[in-house]
C-alpha cells in the first residue's frame, strides 16, 4: 500500500494511507510521542470479537516513521460502530518485536510489563458516519516500566 505524505509542520505529518476519496467512513488517528529514529509504524482497526487476534484486524495501515514525533493516519472503517485501535512502532524496522519497540491503543489505557494487552472495553471508541478522530500516545519500555517517552 502506497502512502501519500503531505507535510503539515516540522513535527507532524499527515498520511492518507488506507483511505481514498471513495472511503465513506474514516478514522483519523493521530499518533503522538513517537521515539525519534527510524522504523515502521503500523495501525490496526479491530472489532470486539477479533480484538488483538492474529490476522483478525479489519483495517491495517503501515508507514515508515521517518524520525517524526507525531503522525496522522487515515484508517478506513467498514461501517459506523465501536472499534479498538492498536499501534505498533517497530523502532528499528526489523519486523520483530524488540525491547525498543513501542505500542499504543485507543483511549490510552495504562500498560505494564505484566499487562501489555488491555481488554476491548478499555480501548473501545465509537466511530460514526464520515470522519471521526482520535489521538493515541505511544508507550515504550523504560527499565521495568512502560510509558510515554519524556
Automatic annotation (TrEMBL):
Q: Which domain of life is it from?
A: Bacteria
- Which InterPro entries does the annotation name? DUF2141
Name the species this protein comes from.
Answer: Sphingomonas kyungheensis
Tell me the lineage of the source organism.
Answer: Bacteria, Pseudomonadati, Pseudomonadota, Alphaproteobacteria, Sphingomonadales
Q: What is this protein called?
A: DUF2141 domain-containing protein
Any single Pfam family the record assigns to this protein: DUF2141
Amino acid at each position: 500500500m502506497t502512502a501519500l505524505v503531505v507535510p503539515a509542520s516540522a513535527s507532524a505529518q499527515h498520511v492518507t494511507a488506507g483511505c481514498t476519496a471513495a472511503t465513506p467512513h474514516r478514522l483519523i488517528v493521530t499518533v503522538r510521542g513517537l521515539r525519534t529514529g527510524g522504523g515502521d509504524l503500523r495501525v490496526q482497526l479491530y472489532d470486539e470479537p477479533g480484538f488483538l487476534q492474529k490476522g483478525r484486524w479489519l483495517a491495517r495501515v503501515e508507514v515508515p516513521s521517518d524520525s517524526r514525533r507525531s503522525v496522522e493516519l487515515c484508517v478506513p472503517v467498514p461501517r459506523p460502530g465501536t472499534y479498538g485501535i492498536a499501534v505498533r512502532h517497530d523502532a528499528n524496522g526489523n519486523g520483530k518485536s524488540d525491547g525498543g519497540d513501542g505500542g499504543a491503543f485507543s483511549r490510552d489505557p495504562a500498560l505494564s510489563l505484566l499487562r501489555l494487552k488491555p481488554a476491548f472495553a478499555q480501548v473501545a471508541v465509537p466511530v460514526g458516519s464520515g470522519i471521526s478522530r482520535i489521538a493515541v500516545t505511544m508507550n515504550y519500555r523504560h527499565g521495568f516500566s512502560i510509558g510515554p517517552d519524556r
